[in-house]
Amino acid sequence: MKLRNRFFKSAGRAGIAAIFLLAANICRAQGFLKASGRIITDEKGNKVILRGMGLGGWMLQEGYMFRVSNLGQQYKIREKIAEVAGEDYAARFYDTWLKNHTRKIDIDSMASWGFNSIRLPMHYALYTLPVDKEPVAGQNTWLEKGFELTDNLLKWCKANHMYLILDLHAAPGGQGNDLPISDRDPAKPSLWESKANQDKMIALWKKLAQRYANEPYVGGYDIINEPNWGFEKAEDKRGTEETKNAPLRQLMVDVTKAIREVDNKHIIIIEGNGFGNNYRGIFPLWDNNTVVSFHKYGNFNNVGDIQKFLDISEKNNVPLWMGESGENFNTWYTEAIQLVESHNIGWSWWQEKKMDINNPLEIKVTPGYQQLLNYWAGKGEKPSREEAIATLDDLLAKIKLEQEVYHKDVIDAMFREVRTTETKPFKDHYLTESLNINAVDYDMGRQRYAYMDKDTASYHYTPGVNTTGNKGRAYRNDGVDIQADATGYQVFSIEDGEWLQYTVRSRAAGKFNVELQVASEAGKGKISLLADGVKQGETVSVIQPGKDWSILNIKGIKLKKGINKIQIYADEGGFDLKTIKINKAG
After folding, report:
1. SS3 for 405-455, per residue?
2. How far is CA 396 from CA 370, 385, 415, 435, 438, in A?
């Protein structure tokens, strides 16, 4: 279940030139994928580990992605846009949204970062009319818009030798009680309460299979996303307690049968109840080219937390795929990917972009958009139509990759850090006579190698574990606590024993003095400095209480010519750190 209710410039905007930076050891598409025993193989029989990204927010908006959790479903967001800007503008807004949100540059960039697959969360209403809007009951009106968008996406994937996995994210009527993930209107019959909705879903999959039957770059059909429904007990809103899941199994069997009437080549990907994880009553399998998907969020990254799926794989001789994961911090990302890949399980992350730091691309919140959010939350005045249109037009520009913040630390955690404990500079720090370093520009790498923080991830689905990762949710997605002020960013909430490492390249060997810009309301904090693991100078104490910044001096630091790993160590926490200035002694 999803968490609800910078490669060209360091921590800057995503540069177009970034798309030419090729990642090493990328597995590229080699013909149709196939379920071969407990692994996925390509047409040549080679094992394939899918490393994918989900395009959440493109065809289907969820409120939390754009800081409108209070609105919920996409149809409600659209209603609010129409209310402030007019119905005609709302229609134009969504047309432009589909053009701007995901383009060739997005797919090119993801390929260069290391992804070999894309998961497309489809909204059925882009492909066919809702049941209650069909001119003739029981018939299906096909809409070209969704198919054209899918065709274009497939073309971009082909150009990068990437697999495209089709995922029915919003099924006709909606497949669960978590309303935003399927844009469900609870006043209308759900997927499970309407045979007409189920028939439309089956027909849609047959139509898609007919269109893409001979496309080897289509990796598979993820036939239903995160069902969450109580079949046996209505009070089981999430579907986690179901023991039979008979309606879900039957629908997946019927969808598969329809697909196989026109397509015998593509993998069928199934998801259990309870947001993809409750498989009680689903087996035995009904198709020999099936992959079992599970979704993993906010729990520990050890074998015990995926053992039930490993057991399913072994008992049924079927491959596994972690079809959704993410919405966390970098340490969790590295550990989760290490865990599943060690068991030959591929993955798809959620998601490429939204208004937060824990994805590769961050959509920036402008002052105008914040004013609109305030109005929608009942905390501000309604903007004029002209003001609302200007704000929303600006948002349509901001969702383009070139206008977004690229979080290279997220990509580093998902690929490089999975395979090595080596650190690398987040920014180049070159020391001649003097060097200013922003404290937030510590090295990239794993926890305990590039930095040490006592709270590095969120385990929001693990009872009794209350951790938050980066408390300030700003600038970077590591566990290090970073907050913004009017002059930039600083590391705050520093605890005893925490530390940060900076790679400094010195033009010459010599002695240097260091100035630390610190603040502590309680007047607490003791700091040591190490260079390549050796303590340098004296431990210094924060003695000036208050919110104002003060300077601590550490003198006589010995640095060698070339690379120096400098560590700022909190012998005692309770202070904030903004900058580190290194000056040649004398």
Report:
1. EECHHHHHHHCHHHHCCCCECCCCEEECCEEEEECCCCCECCECCCEECCC
2. 15, 16, 30, 39, 32
List, in sequence order, every residue forming a beta bridge with 31; answer none if it has no partner: none
CATH fold of 16-58+102-363+399-411:
TIM Barrel (3.20.20)
Token reading at 546: 């208050």
- Which residue in this structure is represented by tokens 């990642």? 23
Cβ atoms 274, 228 nearer than 8 A = yes
Q: What is the pLDDT of residues 204-243, one digit of tens each?
A: 999 999 999 999 999 999 999 999 999 999 899 999 999 9
Question: Collapsing DSSP states into helix, strand and coil, what is residue 75?
Answer: helix
- DSSP secondary structure letters along 209-229: HHHHTT-TTEEEEE-----B-
Nearest to 580 by CA among 545, 569, 410, 447: 569
Domain 16-58+102-363+399-411 shares a fold with domain 422-584:
no
pLDDT in tens, 462-508: 888 989 999 999 999 999 999 999 999 999 999 999 999 999 999 99
CATH architecture of 422-584: Sandwich (2.60)
pLDDT of residue 27: 59
Q: How far apart are alpha carbons 455 and 467 in whole angstroms? A: 6
| Bridge partners, residue 99, by sequence | none
